[in-house]
């Protein structure tokens, strides 16, 4: 089937959609015999629910998956069974905490106000052509990095800079894709010799380790300073209340939580230490991939759907106009609050 795939490579998404429709939503892709890449694909909601939710523990990813995605380390995407369950329990508890929600709302709005709108205004003033998918990917990369590490890499800018952190993630994902296409013995040979896409992956992994490692070190130093100030009584109650109101990033939450659940049975039994640099690195890496690509793809797809359905766009505009007060300047950019859009 590989020749047919290569023939339609420029229309691969349309080809996959057509194949899935003809096969009823589930299709067995037969790759070259030497590549060991037979893949069962499904888009049937019932099958997805069965595998990913109802019987998730019956479908471990296994060592082959972890070897293919080794750049993710021991993070939640590579974890199985008890290790996956414990990591999910910890992450879910911290992500659903009101402290993280406050931080999410504040930082996301700030990035739109100070980043996205500035870029859109800059492009609009010059009448330039804009790749929205690239812009959305930059936006979600910045917001994800801020949410998970508290640091802004600055991808959203009018000069569209090349950010090492983002480029390293792109290179790593590209190399993993090549592993799915190339016969296993070839990419393993490339890894051993240090050439081709495997060399790119090795360099990308080092960059990711270095950058995320810097973020972790900064947060640990910051937490140590804060703790010392609290013990010495230099921090006032109103300052603590202000910090609580602003919320905090997920990396800080993990480090704070490491103090309070160090004796937890699950984390102790699985050997998980929330302040361990390797654990934190893998956590950040996995969540960054989850937060960047999925959201940017959804935003791009949404804009494409709206642009191809003018009557829907008109209805959205009319509804939004009812939320703008008569005295407001309708020519200025307006960022709506979540509660405004619930009506």
From TrEMBL:
SUPFAM superfamilies the UniProt entry points to: Cytochrome P450
Domain of life per record: Eukaryota
Cofactor list: heme
Signal peptide: none
Keywords annotated in UniProt: Iron, Metal-binding, Oxidoreductase
Pfam families xrefs: p450
InterPro entries assigned to the protein according to its UniProt record, in alphabetical order: Cyt_P450, Cyt_P450_E_grp-I, Cyt_P450_sf
Gene Ontology molecular functions: heme binding; iron ion binding; monooxygenase activity; oxidoreductase activity, acting on paired donors, with incorporation or reduction of molecular oxygen
Keyword Thylakoid among UniProt keywords: no
UniProt family annotation: Belongs to the cytochrome P450 family.
Name this polypeptide is given: Cytochrome P450
Classification lineage: Eukaryota, Viridiplantae, Streptophyta, Embryophyta, Tracheophyta
């Amino acid at each position: 089937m590989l020749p047919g795939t290569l023939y339609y490579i420029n229309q691969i998404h349309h080809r996959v959609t057509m194949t899935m429709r003809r096969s009823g939503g589930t299709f067995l892709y037969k790759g070259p015999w030497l590549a060991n890449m037979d893949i069962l694909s499904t888009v049937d909601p019932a099958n997805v629910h069965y595998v990913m939710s109802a019987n998730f523990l019956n479908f471990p990813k296994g060592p082959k998956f972890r070897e293919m995605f080794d750049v993710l380390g021991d993070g939640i995407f590579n974890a199985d069974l008890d290790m996956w369950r414990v990591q999910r329990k910890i992450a879910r508890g911290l992500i659903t905490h009101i402290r993280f929600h406050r931080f999410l709302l504040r930082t996301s709005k700030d990035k739109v106000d100070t980043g996205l709108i500035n870029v859109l205004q800059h492009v609009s003033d010059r009448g330039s052509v804009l790749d929205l998918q690239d812009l959305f990917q930059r936006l979600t990369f910045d917001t994800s990095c801020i949410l998970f590490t508290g640091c802004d890499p600055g991808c959203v800018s009018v000069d569209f800079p090349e950010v090492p952190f983002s480029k390293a993630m792109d290179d790593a994902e590209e190399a993993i894709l090549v592993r799915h296409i190339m016969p296993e013995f070839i990419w393993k040979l490339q890894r051993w010799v240090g050439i081709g896409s495997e060399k790119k992956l090795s360099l990308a992994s080092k960059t990711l380790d270095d950058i995320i490692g810097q973020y972790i070190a900064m947060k640990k130093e910051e937490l140590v300073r804060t703790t010392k100030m609290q013990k010495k009584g230099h921090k006032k109650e109103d300052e603590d209340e202000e910090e609580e109101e602003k919320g905090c990033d997920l990396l800080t939450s993990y480090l704070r939580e490491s103090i309070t659940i160090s004796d937890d049975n699950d984390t102790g039994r699985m050997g998980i230490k929330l302040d361990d640099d390797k654990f934190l690195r893998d956590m950040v890496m996995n969540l960054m991939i989850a937060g960047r690509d999925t959201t940017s793809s959804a935003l791009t797809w949404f804009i494409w759907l709206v642009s191809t359905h003018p009557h829907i766009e008109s209805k959205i505009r009319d509804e939004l106009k009812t939320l703008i007060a008569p005295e407001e300047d309708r020519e200025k950019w307006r960022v709506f609050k979540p509660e405004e859009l619930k009506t």
